[in-house]
Amino acid sequence: MPPTPHDLELIRSTLSIVEPVADRATAHFYALLFVHHPDVRSMFPAAMDVQRDRLFRALLLAARSADDPAGLTAYLANLGRGHRKYGTTTAHYGPVGECLLAALAKYSGSRWDAETELAWRRAYGLISSIMINAAEQAAASTPPWWQAEVVAHQVRERDVAVLTLRTDHPYPYRAGQYTTLETPWWPRVWRPFSFATAPRPDGLLTLHVKAVQSGWVSSALVRRAQPGDVLRLGPPTGSMVVDHTDGADLLCLGGGTGIAPVTALVEEVAQHGANGRGVEVFYGARRTEDLYQLEVLREFERRNTWLTVRPVVSEEVVRPGSGLSGLLGDVVAQLGPWDGYRAYLSGPAAMVRRSASMLVRSGVRLEHIHHDLEL
User: Fold this and answer.
1) In terms of Cα–Cα distance, which of 256, 197, 194, 186 is closest to 219?
2) C-alpha–C-alpha distance, residues 156 and 159, integer Å
3) Of 139, 162, 189, which residue sits at a domain end?
4) Are 281 and 307 in contact (CB under 8 A)?
5) Membrane spanning segments where (predicted)?
6) Cα 91 to Cα 359: distance, rounded to the nearest angstrom
């Protein structure tokens, strides 16, 4: 039986209590799971900080999306397909559910009762069934992961590398999507990276990676990876794709290496033909020297009259005609309104959230703003 509206009220009430102590609740969940089911410990990375955070964010998103069944189903199905790369099987969902409920009961205090437990059992039953069904369907046609050889590694401006990969099997994806990636230097640690080109006839994949502080995977990819190394890729995911039957003008904001999926979208539009639509690209960075992808975009602009590229830097005053100065979202909003546009945002989370808020005030409908931040 699926959760009822009253069940959803109880679930949200529980989460509001647990959220302030989410770190302790999720740590307790994993402790229970590893103590009672030690065989699953090898599926997880040695350092669990990021994994713990992901669990609670997924629960919050599921609870908040309950009023959007189609969106929730798409999110959970994608999660189920992605979990195949960890080695997750149908048999794992039962033990995970029992440990999750035990952790929620402990940290919900007096709010937890038989009615609340039943609500959570119904919700978890629905969540797990959607994930299991999606994983089983995916298993019929795709591997749980792809082996990917590094065939080229080019260091760009300041800790940015462009990696070209060749997979062992065809890798189906759309421009604007991303993959999760595991390196041999950090086993079982998966991190997301967007594709920087539209699908190519030769099947090669291109990623832009910036080494960030405490970024184990990104730093290894920039400073240690070299041609011949083999990585693992999870299935493609992400909703930041263009509907080529729509015809509305596009507004694309890319900050830092977030320009990678924007470049891929521009390339895909060029391949399909703009068919009367215009594409506005705003490329943000702190300094002019950080705009490592600008010449590639300028070349697209020279070949396609429907494309306009505007660099934006936040820590410099630029010469008139060479670019714009200011925070990316603020600059774009000042040049609005953007009524009727379909917006695509990629970059640091704070930039995406701020820009999305600014675009709504500039006339872009919320449902027409696309990005892949989970929360």
Assistant:
1) 186
2) 7
3) 139
4) yes
5) none
6) 45
Cβ proximity of 79 and 85 under 8 Å: no
Q: How far apart are CA 325 and CA 313, in angstroms?
A: 5
How far is it, in rounded angstroms, from Cα 87 to Cα 357? 38
CATH number of the domain at 271, please: 3.40.50.80
Q: What tokens were used for 364?
A: 């872009």
Domain of 73 in residue numbering reads as 5-139
Q: What 3-state DSSP class applies to 164? A: strand
Would you mind telling me the total number of residues written for the chain in this entry? 375
Q: Could you tell me the pTM of the whole model?
A: 0.87
Rounded Cα distance, 115 and 39, in Å = 32
Cβ–Cβ under 8 Å, residues 173 and 200: no
- Using an 8 Å Cβ cutoff, are 361 and 333 in contact? yes
How do residues 71-121 score in pLDDT, each as one tens digit?
Answer: 888 889 988 999 999 899 999 999 999 999 999 999 999 999 999 999 999
